[in-house]
Fold these 2 entries.
Entry 1:
Amino acid sequence: MKNTTVIIKDLKHFDIVKTLESGQCFRWEKKDDRQFVGTAYHRTISIGQIGNDIYIDNTNEHDMKYIWTPYFDLDRDYEKIIRVLSEDDIMKKAIEFSGGIHHLRQQPFETLITFIISSNNNIPRIKKIIKKLSEDHGEGIEYSKDIHYSFPSAEKLAASKKQEIDTCKAGFRCSYIHKTAMMVHELKYDFRQLAVMPYLDARESLKQFAGVGDKVADCVLLFTGMKTESFPVDVWVKRVMEDLYLTKDTSLSEINQFGRDKFKEYAGFANTYLFNYIRNME
């Protein structure tokens, strides 16, 4: 600790740029080549990297232990994951390109709404929608003379009128956001139950919400850290799996099953490495 800054020395297998620009989270703003400012768990921090050293400002030892270490997945053995997955020659090549990405353990409700918004959407627009939704319905957090906003709770969004959510300009997804927030609030839905459910049961549970299919449910399970065997399949993953492992016109469900069978408990990490590999090789 140095005042309000935590310094982590010599952290291997972690790249802040690759992690925060990998398409799993949309609430981080890049300030320079290797520094970002973002809000999660009702806190705003900046995080930067010089070599293998990480600098997290506006935090303390308690939050570092209970929020940011889990959030950035710093307590996971990525060296083991890389070693196991690299036994596959194709994966080894993808990891050489994409190594350094960590999975973020994000708040479940925020992740659910975020990936409902992400369906058939592009990253700049997703970021703009989420920022507006947070500004309109979240709570202000002052940091470095700026005001940032927490992601709104299900209770807050459920209490809002549909027209008030429309201002975020998410189009048809605004209806999904409102309906899902109302369901989560009215059911008092406990996301923690998903972590102890079998994978397929957890995915089906999430699919009861408006705008949630297999891919969105898989993303929620993976990017909250609840199911590392989750294998989301979108057009990018379909393309790379058909090009490198399977044949053309393989169904999305078959690709999902193949990925989980082949990579087992590390399927989600394999998915992320392959997704980043194909997206950046275009």
Entry 2:
Amino acid sequence: MKPHSDILDKIRKLLRLADRSRGSTENEAKVALAKAQELMTRHNIDSVLFRMEHGEAGSPSFKVDKGKVDLPKALNPADFMILSLLQSHFNVRCILTHTKTATPVDIIGAPEDVDFAIFAFNYLRQTFFRCWNEFKKTAWNPDKASYYRGLRDGINTELKAAKQRAEESYATDQQQTYALVVVDQTAAISRYVDEHYGKLRNRASRARRVDSSSYFAGETKGRTIQINRPLAS
């Protein structure tokens, strides 16, 4: 099994390969994120199997860690979309706190998952803003929130596929073992949140009109794959 630092270095390399300043497209950036998600899933499964082989499966070896990203006091609509992606795909919980001048977000999970989630958040935030700035120049009366929602849903579809590809490369019994460990990890994260944050208030989502053309453009942007040059795996 590769060391944790090697995995994160490879993830960073994947995302650097999709840097627009190097001539890559937004779709390549999305492909790179999916490849990074697949790699991280493989790393997590390998870690579980490694502990199984060394008789550590039943030990309390799962460590809950906490990282943080600092956001402005007034959040951008993209922030909520990206945080939902992190919670859906990176085995972490995101807790928003508030100060008079900012909105710190605590990212809670296994140390490697926290590192990956923070890196992915910063990368996705740049990508969301860049996609929107390009789209609004070409669209008549575009709606930012609808576009971001579509972008989130398109990327969500690709990340699900990447995770499924990684999991299906393992035998059925290995997949089942990993699924059980994920349940245990989720429970450990929940206990940590309860102990350190107490009862949390869920943010109520407000129903709002969705501009179909902006949403469809965002979803298409998030789902379409057009690789102009090979990416390292």
